[in-house]
Write a structure and sequence with these properties.
Elements lengths: L1 H28 L8 H14 L1 H33 L1 H16 L2 H12 L3 H25 L3 H9 L4 H39 L4 H10 L3 H36 L3
Length: 255
């Protein structure tokens, strides 16, 4: 309990320090069109919230993030697992992963829009493709790092495949899965903004594009920081609990 309270206190103080730095920079600049003060951005945020605009675009972005994240994690975990357990598959498809990892996200987005069209399928596909390879690499490394002694123990005790997966494989893979989830959310939502910026008619990325053209820095910050705040909430609640669960078995292991 003591550590948790310390983390929360440090988090609050750190964010307050960042807010103070922002306020000082806005005061020194004295130009709201370049860098508005936090209270001015907060006023824009509350106005957009009262009008209902923020909820509409926030929800659109959130749904795209959720869909792309689910696809990337599902396919990435499956690909990474099979590449980790089968050396032949890994040998043949490793170059594919290297290619996918090094193709710029912007190129994938543009190609999906050209091939599929300016629609939701293209948007979600582009985002999912950009993250799937990263997940696959992480899970492959996790499978290859599995302790062979635990696998042999499971065979000696004649554990079923389901029991081995649940009690032997998944606990060892969980840190890699948790890492993929954390990195995936952080990367996917940023790519979703680019997708919305380039070819969607709603979402936070679309609003940022709109207010960029109007040179409205305050509105850009209000919309961007709304989702940043949501991701910060996820990080220090759900993702932090997942991380603790992922490492609990290592902390409780003897020796």
């Amino acid at each position: 309990m003591t550590d948790t309270r310390f983390d929360a206190k440090t988090l609050v103080l750190s964010l307050l320090a960042m807010l103070a730095l922002w306020w000082a920079a806005a005061w020194v600049g004295s130009d709201p069109s370049v860098l508005p003060a936090p209270n001015q951005v907060w006023g824009i945020f509350t106005d957009e919230l009262a009008r209902g605009e923020l909820q509409v675009h926030f929800t659109a972005t959130l749904l795209r993030v959720a869909a792309a994240f689910s696809l990337a994690m599902g396919f990435g975990c499956a690909i990474g697992f099979f590449m980790g357990v089968n050396t032949t598959i890994n040998r043949w498809f490793s170059p594919w992963l290297v290619v996918l990892l090094n193709v710029p996200a912007l190129v994938v987005i543009v190609l999906c829009y050209l091939w599929i069209g300016l629609n939701e399928v293209a948007a979600i596909t582009a985002v999912a493709l950009n993250k799937t390879a990263m997940v696959a690499v992480s899970i492959r490394e996790g499978v290859q790092a599995l302790d062979p002694k635990l696998r042999d123990m499971a065979r000696v005790f004649r554990m079923s495949r389901g029991a081995q997966l649940r009690h032997v494989i998944v606990p060892q893979l969980w840190p890699y899965i948790a890492s993929s989830i954390r990195n995936g959310l952080a990367i996917i939502w940023k790519i979703v903004l680019v997708v919305e910026f380039l070819g969607r008619s709603n979402g936070i990325g679309f609003q940022i594009h709109l207010y960029f053209q109007l040179f409205e820095t305050g509105y850009v910050l209000a919309y961007a920081l709304s989702f940043v705040a949501f991701m910060l909430l996820l990080e220090f609640t759900l993702l932090r609990m997942m991380e603790e669960r992922a490492t609990r078995w290592r902390q409780s292991a003897p020796g």
